[in-house]
Amino acid sequence: MKRIDSISQLEKTKTALADKRDPSKTCITVCKGTGCSASGGAGVADRFITEIKKKKLAGKVSVRTTGCHGFCEQGPLVVVHPKGIFYNKVSDNDVSEILSKTVVGGEVIERLLYIDPATGKRIVYEKDVPFYKKQTRLLFGNNGKIDPTDIEDYVALGGYGSLGKALSKMAPGDIIDTVKGSGLRGRGGGGFSTGKKWASCQKAHGTEKYIICNADEGDPGAFQDRSLLEGNPHSVLEGMIIGAYAIGAREGYIYVRNEYPLAVKHIRVAIKQAGESGFIGKNILGSDFSFTIKVNRGGGAFVCGESSALFASIEGRLGEPRFKHVHATEKGLWDKPTVLNNVKTWATIPIVIDKGADWFARIGTDRSKGTMIFSLVGKINNTGLAEVPMGITLHKLIFDIGGGIPNGKRFKAVQTGGPSGGCIPEKLLDLQVDYEGLTEAGSMMGSGSFIIMDEDTCMVDIAKYFLSFTMDESCGKCTPCREGTMHMYNILKDITEGKATMEDLDTLEDLGRMIKETSLCQLGTSAPNPILSTLRYFKSEYEAHIKDKKCPTGVCRKLLQYSIDKEKCTGCTVCAKKCPVSAISGEKKKAHKIDKEICTKCGVCYEVCKFDAVKAG
Amino acid sequence: MVKLTINNKPIEVEEGTTVLEAAKKLGIDIPTMCIHGSMEPYGACRVCMVEVCSGKWSKLQTSCTYPVSEGLEVLTDSERAIKARKFIIELLLARCPNSKEIRALAARLGVEKSRFRTIDPEEKCILCGLCVRTCKELISSSAISFINRGIDRAVETPFKIDSDACIGCGACVFVCPTGAIKVEDIEGKRKLEKWHTELELAKCADCGEYFTTIKELDRVIDKLGLPKDMFTSCSACKRKKLRKNLSISI
After folding, report:
1. Would you state the pLDDT for residue B135?
2. Cα A38 to chain center, whole Å?
3. Do the Cβ atoms of A75 and A41 come closer than 8 Å?
4. B187 near A CB under 8 A
5. pTM beyond cutoff 0.80
């Protein structure tokens, strides 16, 4: 795309690019996001290109590889436009058939259609898939329509139009007022008013100011930021450029995990193309405003997602947090006024500017406006990313969009907000999901990751898992987070091994409360959340481990006891033969016995017994 | 000037003063471990936590880092503040059960034993970072640094081998609040075992005693830009010479 030097030229280019897109022409979109790539999406995309050549369909069909569509469970995803025929779990071998039957013959391949588990019916069109139908995809909607490595796709859909509007029709103050009025709050989890943050940075002294995009997404189960950067990087850049214009910054950084190679690649391609097209660099769109963006790759420390540690990391210092009695908007990167926002926040800005504050503020609840992208992972049918208005109930999100729990199991809890969030039980399924709602329930919005657990999950074991994550990721600077999380982990380990006392449980609770009170940064102050919330909602499970030395779900192996039911055992000897440590003895055709001293609780006997005689408990 | 109260006692201090400094002016004692007057506060040990209240909210803050503000109410002896400090010292006591200094501070705060498990009873380092910061900020050597994270965090030289950057000045030994770093001068060498480093000592041209490391002397000469022959004697001999010269001139 040629360099654009004025607003009128941007409009002309957009119209020309949109006209080039013949809506009646067949276009096949293949998801090449990380999820679909992992299940073979990249191979599918390549096969389409070679098969189109082979079948001499080049003039009639085009292929567009896109970023994540969100429905990762069903990947690789292929959509045949203009009709929008939706094929899921497509493999290389299906490509030739799709071309000859669907593209040439106009026929729908039943086998590749998505079956709605609720009704058992096959669904032909993408727009009718319940997973998508019940979402409000403001940020994510364009992911399926854009090749993230081609800026023309973004501009053809009106991309950089908000930047044009901001530069030509709005003063910096107007932009800040609009963002304030929209009620947009930080999507990294903190939930601070974005407009207020910008306003305080704009007012801060000094001419050197910075804009930073926090893409150091590290929560287990979260991949929203990754998917946005991979699938629609220009939306993030456009938001940052508008933000820079509003607060008066000339330089910006994207701090992205190096473990996200595709995101790093796409954002670099996008920055290069945006620079060549006149959206980044000197005199943007012919105005006096100049702004550059650099990519800074993170070294893999979770704590670097914390603002002061992130600044330290960019500055080349040890990535550890420091006390923050002065806001980053006054003293941030290199001690200069800085606005740090999450990927999703930046990607929301062009929408707010385009549609206006009032339009945006109508979506969501009184306190939390707009949409949020949630990742649905764990024991859930529709693993993937769902964008919904704030205020949706947990039930709707997990059951209507997420498709409920697999294998007919019962829902037990959902861990929201990553490893530092809390576990919310079944009785709170009607809870409205917004910043305050989740906090009041003892959890948090965090990155928007939802880890769903079913009846087979041991809540003590899961709390131990999350704590092991924060314990490993603690930078170790302050005493309570470094020492305290280790002591909490040790107590949890004792509980799951049947070595703890009820006094230990009190110590655990006290540790949790005190670590929250005394830690230096948010990693420490939120690390005890999984424990405190499971103690609040699932205390009986802890007590069963301690008092009865039993894990109610049978997850904690050290508490398991295998025994053989004398009545049911036929003395077939299979268990005795399969036992790797020869812990089972008994005569043929007579009931067998397990020596508990030798038994390693591997469970082989339980699995091989055909007579249901081996009991675990 | 900023007006505030600490334990309901009013005080007026300059803007930019920390709560700890203001409390000191009122003679209110707050325990500290990771602060040193010649360096920026760090806020890591959390021993100096106090409760700060402003209007409706109140929260725990490290007094060594928290700046005073108009109308701030600070409580160093509230139940919440005392509980927090006791909790921190309990954690440190579990980490270093045989450290004389930690035991003394724990006793001062009314903590006799810790509820928590000890991993290494010989551990003396509380990771306050004073040694690391002194070496970097005051000595400009950066011979030591933090390695690893979480409970594995430790202070070390790069690659845990002898350090080229260490000049053997012993400032780290001096600032360590728990005596975790040892220095020994044996047979013309200065040994810093914790830093795997041994340095040659310089002999006094007058009395023949070893007095400091050659590397430290080189650093001082380089920094001050003074002639080398001014640094050939130990400080005792230098004083002696000075006395002699003074008496001659009189």
Report:
1. 97
2. 16
3. yes
4. no
5. yes
Chain B residue with the nearest C-alpha to that of A486: B151
Calculate how close chain A gets to B188, using CA atoms only, in Å.
36
**Which of B89, B173, B72 has the alpha carbon at shortest distance from B126?**
B89
* Structure confidence at residue A152 (pLDDT): 96
For residue A409 the two structure tokens come to: 């199991």
CB interface of B with A, residues 13-42, below 8 Å: 41
Burial A54-80 (b: 16+ CB within 10 A, else e): eeebeeebbbbbbbbbbbbbbbbbbbb
In the block, which residue shows the tokens 């005890």? A528
| Three-state secondary structure call for residue A51 | helix
CA–CA gap between residue A534 and residue A546 (Å, rounded):
15
CA distance A514 to B86: 10
CB of B127 within 8 Å of a chain A CB? The answer is yes
Tell me which residues of chain A have a pLDDT lower than 50.
none
Helix (H) or strand (E) holding B11: strand B9-13
Can you tell me whether residue A519 is helix, strand or coil? coil
Cα–Cα dist B155/A320, whole Å: 15
Measured between beta carbons, the chain B residues lying within 8 angstroms of A473 are: 149-150
**CB-CB neighbors (< 8 A) of B146 in chain A:** 318, 320, 476
On average, the pLDDT of chain B sits at: 95
- The verdict on a CB contact (< 8 Å) between B46 and A474 is no
Chain B residues lying within 8 Å of A483, measured CB to CB: 91-92, 94-95, 116, 151
DSSP single-letter state for residue A364: B
Mutate to test the interface with B, among A326, A477, A492, A520 (most CBs of B within 10 A): A477
Please report, for residues A86, A97, A223, the alpha-carbon distance to residue A100 in angstroms, rounded to integers and kept in the order given: 16, 5, 35
CA distance A500 to A490: 10
pLDDT per residue over B61-77, tens digit each? 999 999 999 999 999 99
- ipTM surpasses cut 0.85: yes
Distance CA(A525)–CA(A145), nearest Å, equals 41
Chain A contact set for B45 (CB, 8 A):
478-479
The residue type found at A539 is K
Is B94 touching A (CB cutoff 8 A)?
yes
User: Any idea which residue has 């005392």 for tokens?
Assistant: B82
Identify the three-state secondary structure at position B87. Answer: helix
- Note the pLDDT tens digit of each residue in A217-262: 999 889 999 999 999 999 999 999 999 999 999 999 999 999 999 9
Contact A483 B151 (CB under 8 A): yes
B243–chain A nearest CA distance, Å: 48
The pairs formed by A324-327 with CB atoms below 8 angstroms and a separation of 24 or more are: A325/B61, A325/B65, A325/B66, A325/B67, A327/A200
**How many whole angstroms separate alpha carbon B209 and alpha carbon B214?**
13
- Tell me how close the Cα of A551 comes to any Cα of chain B, in angstroms: 25
pLDDT exceeds cutoff 70 at B250: no
Strands A562-564 and A614-616: antiparallel
Phi, psi of B206 (to 5 degrees): -95, -60
Give me the residue from A476, A480, A485 closest to B153, CB to CB: A476
CB contact under 8 A, B91 and A484: yes
